Predict the structure.
Amino acid sequence: MRILGGWKIVGELPDISKAIIPVAPHTSNWDFFVGLAVKFALGVRLSFLGKHSIFVFPVRRLLIWLGGIPVQRDSAHGIVGQMVEQFGKREDLLLVLAPEGTRSKVTEWRKGFLHMAQQANVPVIPIAFCFATRSILISEPMPVGEDIEAALQRIKDFTNQAVGKRPELQ
């Protein structure tokens, strides 16, 4: 499937109501806009996390309409607990996030998304944005299981085939 700007989608999202979708590599603000194009092309409701303080007038309604979920970073339950609770409350929740946690070069990914998936008993569906080939690569769903490190490696093995907008940050 071709989308805006000549990008192509390789693979497809499975017809499931709940999952965590880690998208990597995350090296540029452009990733958000490519992601929006994918969301609209696929016609699915995808959600993303945002610090509660950005959900203010005049952009609050737009961010929520786009799928934004405000989170309190200083909450006693932490973001993992907040999202596990959201997965329990909602009939549908496809949560997209950047596992690196930043657009900067990192040596280690954050693992909170894997703990969310494990505790909420939902699969992860890795997606890779490859700027070199203008491809969005969608994996098959992956269960997390008991071994968080093994799950993380499987996800990295999939996303490492992609080249970010700024490859020097990968």
